[in-house]
Every structure is written in structure tokens, then in C-alpha cells.
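Researcher: We're teaching a course module on how sequence relates to structure. For the next exercise, students receive a sequence and then see the predicted structure as C-alpha cells, so they can try to spot secondary structure elements on their own. Here is the exercise chain.
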Amino acid sequence: MQSRRRKLRTGSTLTTTRSLHDSGSPRPPSPSPWKLAYLYQQNIELNWRSRPLPNPRVLKGHDDHVITCLQFNGSRIVSGSDDNTLKIWSAIDGKCLKTLTGHTGGVWSSQMSDTVVVSGSTDRTLKVWNINTGHCIHTLYGHTSTVRCLHMHGNKVVSGSRDAMLRVWDVTTGECLHVLVGHVAAVRCVQYDGRLVVSGAYDFTVKVWDPEREECLHTLSGHTNRVYSLQFDGMHIVSGSLDTSIRVWDAETGQAKHTLMGHQSLTSGMELRQNILVSGNADSTVKIWDISTGKCLQTLSGPNKHQSAVTCLQFNRKFVVTSSDDGTVKLWDLKTGEFVRNLVTLESGGSGGVVWRIKTSDIKLVCAVGSRNGTEETKLMVLDFDAEK
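Model: And here is the predicted structure for the students to work with:
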């Protein structure tokens, strides 16, 4: 008996535990991978919804200039600015990995993949950059005015310009593959799914193109003012305009399906996932729509609504995240439309501080903030809601 006690006392925990289980005691069941994943997701949701906000990591750059475009892929952030540069940042430790210099005018549009960054500028060119080295691989010449919008699919990027033209480029070779001519005013927004190009312009129209044949398949007429925003999922086109309306179109036939009325001003940003559309407006509200019926499901307003124009939004199956000229980033419940809480509140909000752009992943929020009057330093703020931290 004495030797048995000594063995238990001196043996390793693992050996002792194993010997006890071997003697017939039941082994406690280990949680299934499914349950662990579920609990992890629940913890992430609680971190977003109610737990104390994480301290933001602050990434300072671009001096006192405006951050005009923002990309984020989970591990890297790309910010473009009217200071003529782009910066690549680590979303993990916040370090500035590369500064991309070479444009001779402000950067107004960008796209990123795992290997390259593409930028469009007021200098009328696009540049293709190696995301790892920061070297400029190609400078793409052809537009005769500011390159205002870009959309990349695979190794092709489509650019829209104030010269009223669209161009399709091969980012690997730098070759201009196609030129799409037909708009009679600046092209403001573009979407490309690898098959069709959809463009919105200041001529009040939306056009659907077959880029391979350089043919305009449909001109979607109905807006009575400039088109500023687009969503395209291969079947549906959604366009937002300064005329306050949002219009839903059938991409194959070009037929108008619904006109979504309710906003009071310019729809500056939209996101479409399946049949759910979320729109942000200069009237300070956000609306959730079902594009299959044309019905407005929720208006994100009330006492906690934004106090100024909505600048950007993102949403997933649980939440809507919105930013505004009022210097806040707000979290809303997608299903109920209820305000959850402020995720960011700039001290200079209301006196010049602005959140220009936001990007989210399941666990991170990236905000581009600053001001036009010097009250808020230009910077990126990264909030990490990872449940394992």
C-alpha cells in the first residue's frame, strides 16, 4: 500500500490519470470539433456585441492627407491616399510593410489580390504592384483623365475613368485587352464578374458590356441623376444614384425589376449578399432591402442613428457595420435593425473628425479616419475581436 501511494505521488499526472482510467473509471468525453467551432463563433459574436471593446491598434501614415481607398484581406491592409502613395500594412502587428511610390497624382481607386495591388490615379494611369516586394510591375497607359474606379477578377482588372471610357487590362502582362466606349460622361463605378462588365456613370445610365466583343449589351435608363454606386452578383444589378433612388435590374435582359424608394439623398455605398441589400446614404440612414420583392425590411435609424452622411458599410449574416462623417462606427443587428453599440467614437466627431472607409473580417475591423480641418490625425485603426486573444 505504501509503495502504491508513493507511485501515485511521484508518477506524472499523465501516468496517474491513465492508470486511473485503465482501472475502469469513465473517460470524460472531449468536445467535438463542431462544438468547439460553434463556441468559438459564439465568443466572437459576444466580443463584437457586448464585451469590452478591444483597444485599437493605431497605424499612422499619409500625414494629414485623405485616405481615399482601403483594401483588406485578413492579413494585409492596403491604404491609398491623395498624397500620391499607397501603403501596405500588416493587419497582425500593424507595421507598415511597404510604401508604394510612383504615381504623380492622388490615388483614387485600388484593388488587391494575394500577389498584386492595382491602383488608379488622377495622373491618368493604373499601376500594378508586387504585394510582397512593393515594386511597380506595370504602369498602364491609355486613359486621358482620372482613373476613378477599378474592379479585378482573376488576372484581369477593369478601369473606369472620367474620360467616359472603360478599359480591360491583363495585370500579368500589362496589356490593354479591350476598350469599352459608350458612356458620355465620367464613369464612377464598375463591377466585373469575369464574364460581364457593369458600369455606372455621370450620364445617368448603367451599361452592361460583353468585354470580349467590346459590345454594350444593355443601357439601363431610369435614373434622373448621376450613378454613384453599383452591386452585381451575375444575375442582378443594383444601382444607387444622386436622384435618391436605388434600382434593381435583371442583368441578362436589362429589364428594371424594382425601384427602391425611401432614402432622401445620395446612396454612397451598398453591399449585396444573395437577396439582401444594405444601402448607406448621405441622409445619415442605412436601409436593409429584399431585392427579390423590392421591400425595405429595416431602416437603421432612431435615437442612436448617425448624425451625418454614411460613408461606408459592411455586413455579414449577423451584423451591419456602418461609418459616417460624424466620426463614429456603429454596429447594428441585421435581422432586427436594432442599434447594438458604437465600435469607434472619435473625440473630434462632430467637429471635423471623419471615418472615411471601413473594412471588416469575422474578427477584425479596419477604419480609415482623419479630418479635412486638422482636428483628427490621418490614421488607420484596427480592432481585433478574436475570441482566442
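Model: If you want an answer key for the exercise: The helical segments are 2-10, 13-22, 33-49. Residues 218 and 253 are 8 Å apart (CA to CA).
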